[in-house]
């Protein structure tokens, strides 16, 4: 159910929220970093967890498509769009659940437990928070 444009890799083990992990906006106990050639990748060690994260990522994209002006399904996302979708979506979910930290596997589990299904999340509350997310500003380089 995941969209290839939302993953860092076409690998079947690639973490769905790799951009958020690389941006240090989230953590995941099930992720492991590796390198393929000169490229760093994040892989998921649990196929069921990856499926759940893929479901959440697909729902985030579907529900926030209009608010974020995303391309239609089937077309890839730009890096900034995917970053905003992943980081903003996880931050909104963290806020809605009242979680202390943004640990992806825990957030998905809490969301499923509290709402019964990821489709039953409070999307009217999540989407505006997701759309309001902005990346951290980079510090100016020291001379």
Uncertain segments are: 1-9
Most strands sheet = 2 strands, antiparallel
Tally of contiguous helical segments: 5
Order of helices and strands: HEEHHHH
The count of domains is 1
Characterize the overall form.
globular
Would you tell me the structural class of the helices and strands?
mainly alpha
Separation of termini? 47 Å
Strand order of the largest sheet: 1-2
Strand content: 5-15%
Mean pLDDT equals 90
Give the number of DSSP strands. 2
The share of residues in helices is 40-55%
Radius of gyration: 15 Å
SSE inventory with pairings:
Blueprint: H1 18-22, E1 31-36, E2 39-44, H2 47-64, H3 79-97, H4 104-115, H5 123-132
Antiparallel strand pairs: 1-2
Helix pairs in contact: 3-4, 3-5
Folded structure, characterized:
This protein has five helices and two strands, in the order αββαααα. With 143 residues, the chain is mainly α. It has one domain. The chain has a two-stranded antiparallel ribbon. Helix 3 crosses helix 4. The longest helix has 19 residues. The N terminus is likely disordered.
């Amino acid at each position: 159910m995941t969209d290839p444009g939302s993953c860092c890799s076409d690998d079947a083990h690639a973490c769905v929220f790799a951009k958020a992990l690389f941006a240090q906006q989230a953590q995941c106990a099930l992720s492991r970093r590796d390198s393929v050639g000169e490229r760093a990748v994040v892989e998921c060690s649990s196929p069921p967890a990856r499926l759940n994260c893929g479901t959440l990522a697909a729902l985030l994209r579907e529900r926030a498509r209009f608010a974020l002006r995303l391309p239609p399904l089937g077309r890839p996302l730009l890096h900034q769009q995917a970053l905003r979708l992943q980081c903003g979506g996880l931050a909104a979910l963290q806020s809605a659940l009242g979680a202390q930290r943004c640990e992806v596997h825990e957030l998905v589990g809490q969301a499923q437990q509290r709402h019964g299904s990821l489709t039953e999340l409070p999307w009217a509350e999540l989407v505006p928070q997701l759309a309001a997310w902005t990346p951290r500003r980079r510090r100016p380089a020291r001379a």
